Structure formats: structure tokens, C-alpha cells
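Entry type: protein chain
Record version: 2
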Amino acid sequence: MNHLSRRQVLGGAVATAAAVTLGAPSVHAQKRGQTIRFVAQADLKVLDPVWTTGYITRNHGYLVYDTLFGTDEQLRVKPQMVDRFSVSADGMKYTFTLRDGLRWHDGKPVVSEDCVESLRRWGKRDRFGGFLMAHTGKITPVDAKTFTLELAERFGPVLDALGSGARPAFMMPARIAATSPAEQIKEIVGSGPFKFVEGDWQPGNQAVYVRNPGYVPRNEAPSGSTGGKKVHLDKVIWRYGPNPESVAEALAAGEVDWWEQPPLDFMPKINQNPALRTFIPDPLGTQGWLRPNHLHPPFNNKKARQALLYAMDQVTYLALAIGPADYYRPCHSVFACKGPYASRAGAEPLMKPDLARARQLVKESGYDGRPVVVIQITDLVFLNYAAIVTRRRLESIGFNVELKTMDWSTNLIERNRKEPPDKGGWNLLHTWWTAADVISPAVHFGLSAAGPTAWYGWANIPQLEKLTTAWLRATDQAQRKQIADDIQKVAFDEVPYVPWGEWDNPTAFRKSVQGILKFSAPVFWNVATT
């Protein structure tokens, strides 16, 4: 496939969109009875933020739940539900004391046992949390507000794990957190600034949240998921808008207040409307993924996976899937290119696509012609087009391709299936991660390679797991940088996934909306309408 622009493919004009940068947001002239109408990136079908890594569910989690620690807009970890903590002189025992006034939405107090049980469940599903729990001897309640975490082996980034945003350690009542992490929870009770209105939840249409009057915010300025989560809104109506043209019209007409993730082709017109504003809430950007299923042919064979790497042309993917060139950039690293571990170590196949070499690798893999089942997401424009590019690239190197269409939230369920592709499973999926979630080996699910417990695709690459553990135990930055380079070299040889570049995601809202924070997730504290 030649390098195609969206102008060629879509027949529309591509213009440069200038985003309005917000300063430190503050809210004035609040009015009572405020409701915000928000169009989310996808349909909310899964409510358990531990069971899935889907951002749509994580975003839901930030409204309903709270965390022991959070991450501010500079990616610094700060206490949130925790009032104070101490670390023993040998660094092996952490003692945490909760803030006063923490209550679940059912009115019961948050106690240390709830936090202990929540951490145990989270640690069985989260990558960083899993590493922490592997180094932990025990987590024990001391009294109603205090608990301890005692390490069995030295582990420096304890607080970084607890404050990680990749799959946040959301706190739940112990009775709910006792649910197996392999099963979805059935009751949505948090202690966060909003309550989920289960009776108004209509999958495929909307979710509704109302202000939690019992929430006690910290007495600090808000930043990211840290600080004072002061709520000015009485209700959040969270809508699903699979048709971007309709959402754009509703935003312009004042029927919608905030559009989380407009397709970038819509940005020029949005920026021309004086009633609307845009900005990029996460300046570190986003990384696109092509993830093979390592359980079944052909991608249980390393040579077939290497063929994907040699066939990857990031500019082709980005030009078609993302659109305006001002928003995207090639990135020949598995780590975020604006992060400290970005590198070109081992990246030669990604930097210089070679279709002839890819075809040869397909032949050497023993590929037998059976259809390669590629999940195609229909309600997210960029993933829809990414699947089209993948089909063309795969067919050009000798694969037969079958597109399996579904919406994003159905995919969050379907990608759990481990059956062979001809029995309802899949071979390739497309997804994306914010840069903060691919910034280091500890949080990077694309490098998760522990077989059955790895992220979807279930890569089994023991060397990656060993190197990541070494990175976590490293004591200085130069050593961590060298290990990260070694991890990337293994990744580009074994190919747990293929990155297809980076881009920025602006958000759009009416000028009547104030106080949106810079963060990798849309959060609704500090937000008001005038």
C-alpha cells in the first residue's frame, strides 16, 4: 500500500487545527443544578475497572472510585485517600493511614480492610501491581484507618505502583473486592466524588452519575488524579455517540457540552466555531498497537510475528488512521517517545519497512493459508481505518485476511476469548495506550509476556519478564536505561506487539464549560458549567 493521506482516502480536506491551551483551570460563577452532557470515546458496557484495562471503564472508575495515591499532571505520585504514610529504615515496611471522612456511597465508613482486599484483587490483574505483590510478604490491617505493607523482597517503586494510572488501584468495599478478578463485580459502590446511577444505565446509549454529597475532598489544588476533587456538577450524563457527524452537530448546537475524543478530521471546523474550545489534555500523546494472538497459528510462530514488524509502515498507518499530520509522529520505540526510555535499540525493522523480507518470513513461518482473523473496531474512526491498513499490508505479504467487525466495548469482552480463530477467537487486534501507560517497563502491558497471565494475546517470553524484574530492582537511572534498551531489543526480536506510531488527542467542549484538568483521562471534579 502506498502512503495515502486521509484527503485521498476520505475525499475531504485536511487542515491544520490550532488547539487552545488552557492554563491552570479554576472555576468561578458556579450555579446550582449543573448538568454536563458528555460524549465518551465508546460505549460503556463493562463496569469493573479491575477486570478490564479498557480506558472507557477506567474513566468510569475515576468518577465512582477513589485511590490511595494518584498521579498529578507532571506524573508525580501524591497521596489521595491516604492521609500520611511512613517507611521503615530498611525500606521493607510501609505504613499507611487513611484520611478522615472517607465513606462508601452506601454510607458505611471506608476501613483499612477494604483497602487491603482491594489491593489484593488489583494486584492479580494489573502489571505493575502484580510485580508489587510478587515482592510483598503480607498486607495487614492494623486498625480501622491503618494498614501495613511488608515486602518480602526489596522493591523500590512501591508508591509508583500504588499511584499508577495504567490500571489504577481503585478502592472498593471488601465484600465487593473479594470477587475473583477473573469475574466482573456485580455491585458498583465506591467512595469517589460521583455515584453511578445504575437504574439510568443504558448500554448503547448512556450512563448517568450524580454528585456524592458525602465526599470530602483534600484541601489542595487539583492536578491530574491528585489534590482536592471538588465537585461543582450535580449530574454527569455520559452519552455514547458512534456517529461523529451527529456528535459534531450536537456540540455545535449546544445539545452536547463536551466531546471527549473527536476524530481529528473534525478539528478544523470545531476550531472555527467561536462557541467551542479545544485543547490537548495529555501532551505526552498516544501510542497505537497491533497486537497478535500468540496462542494460535500463524502468530504462535516468531517468524510470522516478525513479518508484522517488517510490514509495518507507521506513516501509512498514521496518515490514514489519524489524519492531519500536525497531530501525529512516527515513533520507533516501544516506549513513549517523549519519555525517558525512548530508544531506537533494535528498531531497524520498524525504521525501514521491507515487504520482501516480510513475505519471506511468512513463507518461512509455515503459514498454511488459513484466514487471519483481524478485529475491526467500527465505532472508533482511527481503529476502523487501522484495520483497513492492516488488511492491505497483510494481504501484500501473503496472508489471507478476515475482518471481524464489532464496536469497541464488545471488543473489550471478545478479546478475552482464547479459542482458536475458527472457533470464535481472533489473531490480531488494534488498540491504543496513552504515553503514561507505555512510558516504562513496569506499566507497559505490551511487554507483558507471562503466558496465560499476560495481557490479551498472551505472549510467553520469559526473557522479557526477567528483564522487567531486573529493571524494577535497578538502583540507578543509567542501569535502568540500559535494561530498558535490552528489553526493547528483545521486544523487536520476539514481537509481542507492533507499535504503529504516536499522536495527540484533543478534546472539545463548549465555552460554557470551565475547569477541565490536564490528565490522561477525562475527570469531572473541578469542572463546572456557566
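Comment: Residues 131 and 483 are 17 Å apart (CA to CA).
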